[in-house]
Amino acid sequence: MFAGLGIQPDLLNRARIERVTDSEAREKFGITGSGDMRGIVFPYCDPLTGVRHTARVRRDHPEIENGKPKNKYLSPYGDRRHLYLVPGCSEQVKDGSTPVVLVEAEKSVLALTAWSERSGRRILPVGMGGCWGWHARIGKQDGPDGSRLDEKGALPELAAICQSEREVVVMLDSNTSGNPHVRQARAALVRTLCGYGARVRIATVPAIENVNGPDDLLALAGDSAIRQVLETAKPALDVAVADAEAAIEAVCKASAECKVGETVRAMDAVTVVSDDLRREFLAARLAAATRGCFSKRTITEGIAERLRESEQKKADCALRLEYAAAGPVDGAQVAETIAGFFRRYFVLAEAYFVILAIWALHTHIFECFDYSPYLAITSPTKRCAKSNVCSALGVLVARPWKTQSVSVAALARKIEKEHCTMILDEADQAFKGPAEYTSALQGVLNSGFEQGGTYSRCVGEGTSMESKDFSTFCPKVIAGIKRLPDTVTDRSIPLRIQRKGKEQVERFRSRKYRPEGAVIKRQAEIWAAGVRADIAFHQPQTIEELNDRAWDVCEPLMAIAEHIGQGWDVRLRAALLKTFGSESAEDNDTGIQLLRDTRDAIAEDEDKIFSTILLSRLRASETSPWADWNGGRGLSTNTLGQKLKDFDIRPRKVRIGEKTLQGYLRESFEDAWNRYLVSPAPSSDFQTEQPEQPNNDAGETLFSRPEQKALVPVEENDESPIDTRVVPVVPDENLPEMMGNNDADLEGTL
Asked: Residue 376 pairs with which residues in a beta bridge?
């Protein structure tokens, strides 16, 4: 088969082509499915490193359906598509003066490579695996019904190869001229390539009997035929105009049932025409061809919308190329830089620095995951730096939108349009608003935690009103005093911060943190562009100590931490366990609080307890509401039984010593304790709650007057009316090594 195409054995060896049996295809290359998998394997390798990405098997005996081969080419299940290049072409890939020739099949790539080496004509053949092979799964997105669907787009390596000002020749198979669907694929490819800034030409393989691809033409007509096809390739504009005219002609001939589909294809074809004057002329022709079915305004607005999408894709591509030119970025180093950024300006628990760093990275690729965890930043009172932490996040996250007051309609529309990172400050005031507004706001926040989350609202006026679902899925920071609503907290990572004491950190000023944050954010964007295609399919190791909802919250962050490596997975795991095991993560529901208090009230060596004894212990708790329950009369045995009944815990007669009274067995509680309460966190050097510290910003009081002579010299400054004693920074030798702290990390923190 290869000898007739002029492909020599040395080229086959370089390309690692081999024939495999059914068992070899399955065991060695991971091919699955029913049927005979014997055939020829085409390994897909990185052109620069030679490392194999995947492989495709061209089966000898594919199934036949409606007279046509089915599943003729197969790849391992779960692999994403790649472009096919012959190993050893790294120089041609890097040399922008070498023309790229895009073809459909691997066999065509090999045939053109052999022709190039024989003729001395320098080209870079690239196989796409079909006319739509360049356009495949690149991530995940929301479907119209809220389901999670594959997001399709141009393969990232296409932009890397078909750079700006590079000559690219599109040479699809000979059935292009007679197949409108193939022409549509070619038009979309040309539009994408022009968006990259490439100089695109269209080469036409003649429709001759027994000729499908350029490899068949080479075998039938020889080297001169390939040279002629390349030399007669037309500029993309001429072909685009011809395709648009053919599409408009198809609209004129279409039946009523096919009119809509043909019109859409014609609008796509007209959009590809780059010359403004020709495009306007073709749009007018299309409007005339659809008169009676569509208005001229519908046609022109449809084409204009497609042009805007094309321009946005060009801008996105330019950004991706800029990121690619910047080279790979170490995600672990970016995370460390973000953590250091927060350490410079804030006094927080060390676990929080780790969480903030990974969470900020997650905002740049949140659409790759099923869930986007919220950050619930709370404090016991005002002036604890919540707003400043929000401002710091605002310069690091993707598409930040910081607000303090927003209507539910504006919130839903903003998220739907921009997929922003919402930073809602002073949330405690928002949740104190009218009941209808508070309920709607909680609904938007509750639904936006998961891919496919929507908020339904009527839009339009009068008889044209209809229900519309607005996407609410995006990263969110929600900051407020004391506790947030339980349903919001349940979807969040709780960060409970305290007012700064005498610790010395840098003043938080926009003239300093904004330019620093912009540099870090750019590094995060470059990192995200390089990992987005792979990280969506990474399954992190489960943290078994967390409940199901807590793991939903933590899974995206753990996936990122494991992906960037360098110990970040260990650090984040410890930080999350400590954070979710702390009091700030406890559920505030009264039923859960009752379970928590019964666990504290019943001693470990008590296998049963009288109801009256349990009740007295509950009422004696200073941090629980049971003594003041029921209007100050206290929790009764009947109310206790009713509340515990919700957890399938019921009183019974128990005997303790000589007495037999109503009471409870310890074993009746254990199942509910295990299901609903946070397990005590494993020992760790993390400190999640800041120690109580005096406030050096307050006025002098009796408690702040020194009782004895100071051992440290006193310094006066304008920042505080209280005497300030400065102690040289002494590194703590006992800080955990797993946190990766060094002297530089601690500078400005102690």
From this structure: 478, 494
